[in-house]
């Protein structure tokens, strides 16, 4: 089972790899820079190279880089969109040092411009980034499914699909993937508790399960369709342990990497990793 959690990137790649091993994880997620935005520390090339060896020797990966929350490709102000574009391009360049990684981002919030305008802005940004990259990136870019909080784009599978279609039509050779966040889809109104098969069939029909590359494994503090996005510890929220048992064993999900983003410290994550491993049949 590929399972891990969000880790602090402050000590670099090698430290994250060793921390992952110490808590029973074989994958992990990290922020590429301060999640609230701002400049990134330069990547230590020796650290990245040492980590790649360590990861191969210890069966770690794929690692999942997460863009800052402040990145909003669908912002109304040009300054906001420029920051998003500059940040993502810079992140993808840095991730060339760790080939095979994935890069997850929140599609964005249209801030009142409407979902259609948001989809257009997000798609055109991704097209410019991937089109100007000079090669197919060593990193797979993932759109995260969102809770539909406020004016978030990506709360409906159709919105995710629309972005993928537009980007791939104008940046040939660049395949986008999707990260499904269990808390977000539940909060968005997809009933993964009572009808996991139905939700996955809908995802397959609209997006295609072949696009699904990662699962953000979070319980939710709120009810189905609440559009809140408040993560809860596994089994302590409204999704519940029985649903997670079905999720980690589902034939279409079980081979995907699971990344926890629950409100836990390292010891808590260690326990949740053991809990989820224990649910596997
Ligand atoms: Fe996220
Ligand atoms: Fe998430
Ligand atoms: Zn969330």
What does this structure look like?
The protein has 281 residues and is α/β, with parallel strands linked by helices. It has a single domain (3-279), classed as Divalent-metal-dependent TIM barrel enzymes (TIM Barrel), CATH 3.20.20.150. It has nine helices and twelve strands. It has helices at residues 13-22, 45-58, 78-94, 115-131, 157-170, 182-188, 196-206, 241-249, 266-279; strands spanning 3-6, 27-31, 64-66, 102-105, 108-109, 140-144, 152-153, 177-181, 212-217, 219-220, 231-232, 258-260. The strands form three sheets. It has an eight-stranded parallel beta barrel. A two-stranded antiparallel sheet has the order 5-7. Helix 1 links the parallel strand 1 (3-6) and strand 2 (27-31). The longest helix is centred in the first third of the chain and has 17 residues, at 78-94. The model has no long low-confidence stretch (mean pLDDT 96). Zinc ion (ZN) binds at residues 181, 183-184, 229, 231. Zinc ion binds at residues 181, 183-184, 229, 231.
Which helices and strands, and how do they pair?
Layout: E1 3-6, H1 13-22, E2 27-31, H2 45-58, E3 64-66, H3 78-94, E4 102-105, E5 108-109, H4 115-131, E6 140-144, E7 152-153, H5 157-170, E8 177-181, H6 182-188, H7 196-206, E9 212-217, E10 219-220, E11 231-232, H8 241-249, E12 258-260, H9 266-279
Parallel strand pairs: 1-2, 1-12, 2-3, 3-4, 4-6, 6-8, 8-9, 9-12
Antiparallel strand pairs: 5-7, 10-11
Helix pairs in contact: 1-2, 3-4, 4-5
One fe (iii) ion binds at residues 66, 106, 144.
From N to C, what is the helix and strand string?
A: EHEHEHEEHEEHEHHEEEHEH
| Radius of gyration from CA coordinates | 18 Å
Kindly estimate the percentage of residues that lie in beta strands according to DSSP.
15-25%
The CATH topology assignment is: TIM Barrel
